[in-house]
């Protein structure tokens, strides 16, 4: 794990690490390792536990375990309780997605509180935010499952990169120090250190698609097609991640050259991103499609952009006749008019 931290610049000295601590083997292993490194790295660990209320009895057991573990290790565990089943109904999402939203809400609230405390001690806001990171315990098995899951759903090449070691989540870096560590090594570490993590029985039920991939599909592929299927998927992810990084560097350069943000560009619309139609039409499709995604991401649409809509955008960007419009999800639109491509959202 130390090698992963160094190679991907995940943690620096004197940083505050908000750590998602479910009580399962992965998060308990990460917690214990970071606690053992805290003096050497001069870091402060802030464990956060979320009681999802999904499994009455077991959820409370998990909460007690994490709070007792933190107490034994000499740190305070910040616990949140959220009725994620009710949240899922309210937001019209799956229980799994509601749990994720609730977890990251808890992580961000804790991170914001730490920033406020640091600012009260005299740090400027930029330095305070930079010093806080959110650590989650995805491992190599999770990475392989994610890549296969995305492949089965028809992902593009960016999706084949899998889970990132570090990415921005609402203003804070989310880091994954265990991403190169396999599950057996994690379980062995917990056993060697007498940690006795709790077990979520739903992880062994082939209910969710990810569970079926882990419990049924990967073992089937390993037995019948390639005994090193996990290693193959991880290698694919590393290659795709390198390609993704290179392409997005080119996208960032092109975006800086082409894009301009304007306020009140069109009546009834909020901030808009504007690009020159000729320049955008001449960009390679791999770059142009990502420029379209980045422009929409800048004004709030960072998902649900289908290949069908990108192809529709290509069709009007490539023609000089205007005006033309392609509607995107949630009120966003791309319009070609007066030699410009305008990305906007209705108010």
Features:
Rossmann fold, 52% helix, 5-stranded antiparallel β-sheet, alpha/beta, 6-stranded mixed β-sheet, globular, 13 helices, 347 residues, Uridine Diphospho-n-acetylenolpyruvylglucosamine Reductase, domain 3
Write structural notes for this entry:
The chain is 52% helix and 15% strand. The model has no long low-confidence stretch (mean pLDDT 92). The N and C termini lie far apart (47 Å). With 347 residues, the protein is an alpha/beta fold. 28% of the residues are buried. Helix 2 crosses helix 8 and helix 7 packs across helix 9. A hairpin with a 2-residue loop joins strand 5 and strand 6. It is built from 13 helices and 11 strands. The protein is globular and about 70 Å long. Strands 3-2-1-4-6-5 form a 6-stranded mixed beta sheet, sandwiched between helices. The protein has a 5-stranded antiparallel beta sheet with strand order 7-8-11-10-9. The protein folds into 2 domains: 2-138 and 162-202, Rossmann fold (3-Layer(aba) Sandwich), CATH 3.40.50; 259-345, 2-Layer Sandwich (Uridine Diphospho-n-acetylenolpyruvylglucosamine Reductase, domain 3).
